[in-house]
Design goal:
CATH topology of the largest domain: OB fold (Dihydrolipoamide Acetyltransferase, E2P)
Largest sheet: 5 strands, antiparallel
Oligomer: single chain
Number of domains: 2
Order of helices and strands: HEEEHEEEEEEEEE
Number of strands: 12
CATH superfamily of the largest domain: RNA polymerase II/Efflux pump adaptor protein, barrel-sandwich hybrid domain
Strand order of the largest sheet: 4-5-12-10-7
Structural class: mainly beta
Length: 161
């Protein structure tokens, strides 16, 4: 089995949007593992020297968030470059609270630390708690409650401390 870069990119997109945590495909001369765990998708590929060497560099470059300083945080692209953007690890519906009659997880001005639940993204009837990977203060909430979100869509701006 041999996969071209387009097939690998399509597989990465499918896995990240499906809510599956890990997919591994292994053939005689080709192995690819995609792990999500509610973080940006990481790809590990092992291609023997008999396989085309051209496939290796694009596979490593396919996920754009691999060079991010933290798993679910990337530098914000706005006028305040020192803020960190927390992005959605999946496609789904964004919820600020655990239920309609419950308080929100975080508000603007709240201090957060790694492991703090920030919101829920509901995907295919599964409610996924999105936890912070960074410490800091919530500067801005970029999505309204119960709005749909895309994979890698910015959710929060955080002033790191």
């Amino acid at each position: 089995m041999s996969m071209d870069i387009k097939q690998i990119q399509d597989l990465i997109k499918f896995v990240s949007k499906s809510g599956v945590n890990e997919v591994s495909i292994e053939e005689k001369d080709f192995k690819i593992t995609i792990k999500t765990n509610q973080e940006p998708t990481y790809v590990t590929a092992s291609i023997p020297t008999a396989a085309p060497v051209v496939a290796a560099p694009p596979v490593a470059a396919a996920p754009t968030a691999v060079s991010a300083p933290a798993p679910t945080a990337a530098t914000a692209v706005n006028e305040e470059a020192n803020f960190i953007t927390i992005k959605s690890p999946m496609i789904g519906t964004f919820y600020r609270s655990p239920g309609p009659d419950k308080g929100v997880f975080v508000n603007v001005g709240d201090e957060i630390s790694p492991g703090k639940v920030l919101c829920i993204v509901e995907a295919m009837k599964l409610f996924n708690e999105i936890e912070s990977e960074v410490s800091g203060k919530i500067v801005k909430i970029l999505i309204n409650d119960a709005e749909p979100v895309e994979y890698d869509q910015p959710l929060f701006l955080v002033d790191p401390r």
